[in-house]
Amino acid sequence: MSAAVTVSVGYAASRKGVPAAASFRQWVEAALRGAKRRKATELSIRIVDSKEGRTLNRDYRGKDYATNVLSFPVELPPGVNLPLIGDLVICAPVVAREAMEQGKPSRHHWAHMTVHGVLHLIGYDHIDDQEAEQMEALETRILAGLGIDDPYAVND
Question: Which domains does the chain have, with CATH numbers?
């Protein structure tokens, strides 16, 4: 990666089963590289428990349950030029449960949620089917570069 990438990781939940900050940085860099973002980038990642995850999802999205990842893109005032792209909130118990339910290694699901969240921060979305297909294809390519299987493949 040619441009500086700053990733701050904060833990507001048990660190048991949660990857190290270096892993999050690797996944963030892979997402930025895959999206061809070459300018300096700064973001924070907060690892939360189910209670905080539920509160944030309810307060910001109107959905009263804990979800796997929330993305909060930065909204800088005009004329303010900072490399900050926003914040990710990842709910540790939800990621662990989903990985188990989906039969995939926990670390792979953490990587997927990080990549997914970073792509949201830089403008990708999945509101309609075409956007969803483009975003999922990009996520799949990025994760493949990390040696991780297609997270959207259906296991029979």
Answer: 5-145 (3.40.390.30)
- With the CA atoms of 106, 108, 109 and 113 taken in that order, what torsion angle do they form, in degrees rounded to the nearest 10? 140
* Phi–psi pair at 51, nearest 5 degrees: -65, -50
N-terminal to C-terminal alpha carbon distance within the chain: 37
Distance between CA atoms of 121 and 118, rounded to whole angstroms?
A: 5
- Helix H segments across the chain? 21-34, 50-61, 92-102, 106-121, 129-145
Beta bridge partners of 27: none
In tens, the pLDDT along 49-95 reads 999 999 999 999 999 999 999 999 999 999 999 999 999 999 999 99
| Structure-token pair, residue 151 | 């997270």
Contacts of 68 (CB under 8 A, 6+ apart): 90, 91, 94, 95, 98, 113
